[in-house]
Amino acid sequence: MIKLADADGSGFLEYDEFITAAMNPKELYSKHNLMRAFKLFDSDKSGTISTQELKEAIGQSLASDEVW
User: Fold this and answer.
1) CA dist., res. 50 & res. 56, Å (int)
2) Crossing angle, helix 51-58 and helix 31-41, to 10 degrees?
3) What's the domain count of the chain?
4) Residue 52 in contact with residue 67, Cβ under 8 Å?
5) Which range of residues forms the domain containing residue 60?
6) For 4-60, what is each residue's pLDDT tens digit?
7) Which of 16, 34, 48, 68 has the fewest CB neighbours in a 10 Å radius?
């Protein structure tokens, strides 16, 4: 979803990109886009997202209580 909203391709969402994405949630949160995002988190293709997969996707620096 971030890639879709990242209009300048910087790999980050700037404020104006964030606002633009938030103004059109129907497109950003379409079934297709949500499925793509889920598949990115579900790295072992199990159909579920584990705490470990979430940490790997977001960053190892998160404590377990921050993930839940």
Assistant:
1) 10
2) 100
3) 1
4) no
5) 2-67
6) 778 888 888 888 888 877 777 777 778 888 888 888 889 999 999 888 888 888 776
7) 68
